[in-house]
Amino acid sequence: MSASLAAASMPPPPASLPPYPAAVAPARWSHIDRDALLASGLKWLLLLALIVFLGLPLVSVLVLAVLDQQGVWSGLLPWQQLLSNPNFVPMVGRSIAVSAAVATLVVPLAYLFAYALHRTLIPLKGVWRAVALLPLLAPSLLPGIALIYLFGNQGLFKEWMNGNIYGFWGILLGQAFYTFPHALMILLSALSMADGRLYDAASAMGSSGWRTFRNVTLPATRYGIFGAFCLVFTLSITDFGVPKIVGGAYNVMAVEAYKAVVGQQQFGRGAMIGLLLLIPAVLTFVIDGWLQRRQRAQMSSRAEIYRPRRHWPRDSAYLLITLVISAALLLMLTVAIGASLVKLWPYNLQLSLMHYDFDNMDGGGWLAYRNSIKLAFGTSIIGTAVIFTGAWLLEKTRSQHYLHGLLRLLVFLPMAVPGLVLGLGYVFFFNHPANPLNGLYGSMAILILCSVTHFYTTAHLSAVTALKQIDPEFEAASASLNVPLLRTYLRITLPLCLPSVLEIFRYLFVSSMTTVSAVIFLYSPNTVLAAVAVLNMDDAGDVGPAAAMSTLILLTSAGFSLLMHVGIARWVRRTQAWRHTSRH
Predict the structure, then answer these.
(1) The whole model's pTM is what?
(2) CATH topology of 40-54+353-576 equal to that of 88-352?
(3) What distance in Å separates the CA atoms of residue 369 and residue 347, rounded to the nearest whole number?
(4) How far apart are CA 446 and CA 519, in angstroms?
(5) How far apart are CA 114 and CA 134, in angstroms?
(6) Taking the CB of residue 535, how many other CB atoms lie within 10 A of it?
């Protein structure tokens, strides 16, 4: 009775429970939403930057190729006029012929060198590898200057060439020096992976060394050989540094594009030739992708590492080949450096620093060298931050499928665009008076932006390779602990990938110091660069000062690379100590 009365006196229960307090709402979901919003915003920002600094300049080249001199749409008429020129088709033939000859010479030599490093027991492999990669530290103009001192009218061995260094043979030798390390790196990668069981089986069956090479080694590396051939051909046909110095009357397409824009102010003609130069680069890019899809893995889970055995006749022969190729490369570098340190090569070999008095010579003076240092550091700092962060966004975050696909297309596009074509696009796009970014033209900022864009793909691939080695569980664990995405990137991802980040920084620095083609149209009197000064001094007849500036670029690139390798090694070892910690 009392219980019933008590129950009757109680207030009725509420019709519904009050809503869940907003302050106690699942904070985890809001945290995930913030991370997704941040990642998506950064991706859209990267997409906008790639469109403005890569896509639109290339579109400008396409548009200008179908306009007449008054800027009126003319369809195929400019192309008909270009092709009807009696000198144009022979020029295309010369460009293809010399580029094919360079690739035919360089790829076998690079293959022999790579084979010696990976498949023999020659001594001092690290030394030979370093010597072979030295041309990467020098501007492409340096081999042309060295060839003049070796085989020119006053060269040491002028009788050997009978004055024929200015033309086909000069371009062939100079571009062979320039492209050799590029082919070598591809072939080193192709030869680095081999299943030792195949070679053991071939030896047990009594197969000769030549037969084993023909049936085992060559088929396993054929894609690398073909890729190296395409790369060397593309680098040769799009390079204008060597042909500009030693080409003489042997006119090629890259030099013609340069003359059309700089000398003749025929921008439409330069755009059309630039598009033609784009064809072999795009074909190489497509073929490389096709080869990578067809290539099968050379190392299975049961594979054994191939270890070459001592074979004195073979090792001696390859050591001789390595010595000859290394001596040829060192000769080119030594002659250029030596000529910059004497009064008058080869008549007065008294040591002198007169050629380094750049302020009293044409070309831009010491200002050009200081500008190159600024460009190199600016490109390295901005490029490393943008490229590595962009690679991290693509590999470690999720967003719309179409956005990822478009970004991947754009980040791989610079690999298929020669520097000369990209430079032309920057001229046509940023120099247009209606462009609100017109104020960038002629500044150091546009040189940095162009350089970052030009070298984007190679640095991006390096970053992706490092990021793929990090287990996705790091991001999953951070998300489960409500750690912000950006903090995970700065505190975990970046330290783990520090060696690759520093390698990207070094690559961008050296490439910016030595590049010519991408920036040749973009500098102003206040932003002239050291590599461009080499070209200007050579045009003025100051070959000695041009050699001196090339030497300075080489020594700066080599010194910086050595500093990165030695000076920061301790820092890298400290941050990467976990890799070497033994398990107990």
Answers:
(1) 0.82
(2) yes
(3) 29
(4) 9
(5) 15
(6) 23
Residue 194: left if φ>0, alpha if ψ -120 to 50, beta else—which one?
A: beta
Task: Find where tokens 């620095």 sit.
Answer: 509
Collapsing DSSP states into helix, strand and coil, what is residue 217?
helix
Q: Which residues of 447-479 are buried (b: 16+ CB within 10 A; e: fewer)?
A: bbbbbbbbbbbbbbebbbebbeebeeeebeebb
Q: Does CATH number 3.30.450.20 belong to domain 88-352? A: no
Q: Evaluate whether 202 touches 216 at the Cβ level (below 8 Å).
A: yes
Q: What CATH architecture applies to the domain 40-54+353-576?
A: Orthogonal Bundle (1.10)
Q: What is the pLDDT of residues 322-379, one digit of tens each?
A: 999 999 999 999 999 998 998 887 778 888 888 888 888 777 789 999 999 999 999 9
Q: Do residues 449 and 54 make contact, with C-beta atoms less than 8 angstroms apart?
A: no
Measured between alpha carbons, how far is 380 from 511 in angstroms, rounded to an integer?
Answer: 9
Q: Of all helices (H) and strands (E), which one includes residue 578?
A: helix 577-580
Cα–Cα dist 375/449, whole Å: 10
User: Are 220 and 226 contacting, i.e. CB atoms less than 8 angstroms apart?
Assistant: no
Total residue length of the chain: 584
Count of other CB atoms within 10 angstroms of residue 61: 24
Distance between CA atoms of residues 223 and 228, nearest Å: 8
- Alpha helices of 309-455 — where are they, by DSSP H? 312-340, 365-396, 401-412, 419-430, 444-454
Tell me: pLDDT of 477 over 70.
no
Please give the C-alpha separations between residue 60 and each of 55, 422, 444, 452, 557, in angstroms, as whole numbers. Answer: 9, 10, 21, 19, 33
Distances (CA, A) of 320 to 111, 183, 460: 14, 20, 37
**pLDDT score for 450:** 95
Asked if 149 and 339 count as a contact pair (C-beta separation under 8 A), the reply is yes
Residue with tokens 């200002």: 367
> What pLDDT is stored for residue 155 in this prediction?
74
Give Dmax (Cα) for the chain.
130
What ranges do the domains of the chain cover? Answer: 40-54+353-576, 88-352
